[in-house]
């Protein structure tokens, strides 16, 4: 888990309901350390993102997938 002084927590949210994704995004604005949120509309899009940014040495891979 990244420290609050070095970088933000990276989360990949897989959510097909725009309102729910937006609510999640708004709630995360209150969190410390800051959160870098990426939203995938469905599982297929999430797999595509993970394949693109999923290598262990890739600095953009998510710390958490929800």
Percent helix, as a range, is 25-40%
Q: Could you name the ranges where pLDDT drops below 50 across 5 or more consecutive residues?
A: none
Number of strands: 3
* Class from helix and strand fractions: alpha/beta
Strand content: 15-25%
Secondary-structure element pattern, one letter each: EHEHE
Largest sheet: 3 strands, parallel
Spatial order of the strands forming the largest sheet: 2-1-3
Overall mean pLDDT: 83
Rg over C-alpha atoms, rounded to the nearest angstrom:
12 Å
For the record, give the distance between the C-alpha atoms at the N and C termini, rounded to a whole number: 16 Å
Tell me what the structure shows.
It is a single chain. A three-stranded parallel beta sheet has the order 2-1-3. Strand 1, helix 1 and strand 2 (35-40) form a beta-alpha-beta unit. It is α/β, with parallel strands linked by helices and 66 residues long. It contains two helices and three strands.
Topology:
Elements: E1 9-14, H1 18-28, E2 35-40, H2 43-53, E3 64-65
Features:
alpha/beta; 66 residues
What does this entry show, briefly?
The protein is of the alpha/beta class and 66 residues long. It has helices spanning 18-28, 43-53; strands spanning 9-14, 35-40, 64-65.
